[in-house]
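Sequence, structure tokens reproduced for absentees:
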Amino acid sequence: MGYYGFLEKKIKAQSLRKKGLSYGEIQNIIDVSKSTLSGWCRDIFLSEKQLNRILENKLKGAARGRIIGAKKQQKKRLNQTREMLTEGKKEVGVLSRRDRFLAGIALYVAEGTKKDKVCCFANSDPALIKFMASWFREFCEIPEDKLRGAIWLHEGLNEKKAKEYWSNLIKIPISQFHKTYIAENKIKSKKIRKNIHQHGVFSIRFSDAKIHRKIMGWIAGVFR
């Protein structure tokens, strides 16, 4: 580039700067480094309005950068979560009958009723409820007509849909459900409920003193 070409760029850059363009905006028009632009335009004073515009654009750019960065991190976390989930499932593999037996005992210790004569497991997670319904049938050999269901539901949620959902999931007829417990919404309470389960908390239960005592024996055998 000759002297006149260089001078032409300088004059154009200064003209654009006087119009209030930022160095980044000028670089989009003229192929020149930011340090060169700074030298050419250091004696050009911008109005308050022009300065505010450049500052606002910088802030918007920074905000965009933060959002893009956050999105990249979110995508990275999601990919990592999927990878770890897949890896974890592979490591567990196919459960044997004994594996299922011990897993059910561990779950019952955490969420099962310890009161004598009544066997009951309660949770809001459909996967856990389904597992324990199968576990009771397989290892406790409970007759279908002895199995009972019960729902703990927040006020305002659809009780009919909740009953149909749990009934279809674990194959217990609604006629074998106990009366649903409706939890009143505490409007004046300062406590904010983060998790309101659409289908409520479900408990699968049956009354059998002998089997309950056997489950307690299984628990004692594992956690002795």
